[in-house]
């Protein structure tokens, strides 16, 4: 089970792995064993998908086993992310096949299904003492060019995989974000039983990770 740093305090009981899942920016140098990586991606593959298409694809750059792939993914990230991501042992890219294999038609649910798969992977990571941090701050073109990704595959996100490390390795601003309380919107703001509400405002003051 993962370490217990900054555990979410939900308003109703949920699985401990869900409450302990977070998006750390500090990692140890400990390599992630191949068996653990296999477990993560098998977990991802267990997710539900439209027509059973399983449109998810993952590019993996293991710093120890595939340093060139790691470097390619790292170089596609924005400078802000590179500062801390460079210390993670594994980087991965999630992608979605945007057409159905059985008939070639567009699959408008592909990104939804990739999100489900990666969320399942994230929960399995907690169980193994690992964490992932998903990012949107990267160059789509750089990833596509570096790995010659076909046009029918949409790049969803880049994420780290690793064992959470000491926060003193981070710049002050990032350390503060790591220590900020993890809170979520109350159910009343996103679950609308019986009909759509007329909300006058949306709250954007909640921690994003």
UniProtKB/TrEMBL annotation:
- Keyword Kinase assigned to the entry: answer is no
Oxidoreductase as a keyword of this entry, yes or no, is yes
Concerning InterPro entries, the annotation shows:
Nitroreductase, Nitroreductase-like
Xref: SUPFAM superfamilies: FMN-dependent nitroreductase-like
Which branch of life, at top level?
A: Bacteria
Q: Which residues form a coiled coil?
A: none
* Residue ranges constituting the Nitroreductase domain according to the UniProt record: 18-75, 76-163
Protein keywords: Oxidoreductase
- Signal sequence span per UniProt? none
- Pfam families tied to this protein: Nitroreductase
The record's family statement is: Belongs to the nitroreductase family.
- What protein is this chain from? Nitroreductase domain-containing protein
Q: Which organism is it from?
A: Hymenobacter ginsengisoli
